[in-house]
């Protein structure tokens, strides 16, 4: 069975965006981006909420010329090669290839997707990931903690959901980011 993996770039105090909805403090440097790419390499399908899709669809038309950083070119290719499922009640059409819209998040359908998928799945967007965690579908969490405190905003982890996690690996980066890899038990 494929794994469902939740990855997030967060502030040290656990937010994926600040109270103004900004996340400019979270832009990964080359070293972190290369690590993200290695995590994304086995992903065959991305599951997104509407807002996360609106952010990530940038990669559909991102420049892949030689003047772009190699880590960005690599991520662009990985993103374009994967299937995408966008959960939205309001989105009428998609702006990327290999993408379909689902109107409701159905845990049973995601479980069937995990069973049938030849490659791992990634879930993006804190709210959607929270629903998947509450349903017991998330197998692993990867948190990239940034050396910044934003004081509030959208939390990276769901409220009201209890889960036991086992630390699998930790990796500090030169710029102060720390990657924490957990298995959900």
Q: CATH topology, which one?
A: Dihydrofolate Reductase, subunit A
Distance between the amino and carboxyl termini:
16 Å
What's the structural domain tally? 1
Q: Choose one word for the global shape.
A: globular
Rg for CA atoms? 16 Å
* Proportion in β-strands: 25-35%
Q: Biggest sheet, strands in spatial order? A: 5-4-3-6-1-7-10-9
Specify the structural class.
alpha/beta
Catalogue the unreliable spans: none
Helix content: 25-40%
| Strand elements, count | 10
Separate helix tally: 5
**What is the top-level CATH class?**
Alpha Beta
Question: How would you state the average pLDDT, rounded?
Answer: 97
Major beta sheet summary: 8 strands, mixed
Describe this protein's structure.
- The chain is an alpha/beta fold.
- It has one domain (about 5-25, about 30-185): Dihydrofolate Reductase, subunit A.
- The protein is about 25% helix and about 30% strand.
- The longest helix is centred in the middle third of the chain and has 12 residues, at about 70-80.
- The chain is globular, with a radius of gyration of 16 Å.
- The mean pLDDT is about 95.
In short:
The chain is of the alpha/beta class and 185 residues long.
List keywords for this structure.
eight-stranded mixed β-sheet; 5 helices; Dihydrofolate Reductase, subunit A; alpha/beta; globular; 10 strands; 185 residues; two-stranded antiparallel ribbon; 30% strand
List the SSEs and their pairings.
Blueprint: E1 4-11, E2 15-17, H1 30-40, E3 43-49, H2 50-56, H3 70-81, E4 83-87, E5 99-102, H4 107-116, E6 120-124, H5 126-134, E7 140-146, E8 154-155, E9 165-172, E10 178-184
Parallel strand pairs: 1-6, 1-7, 3-4, 3-6, 4-5
Antiparallel strand pairs: 2-8, 7-10, 9-10
Helix pairs in contact: 1-3
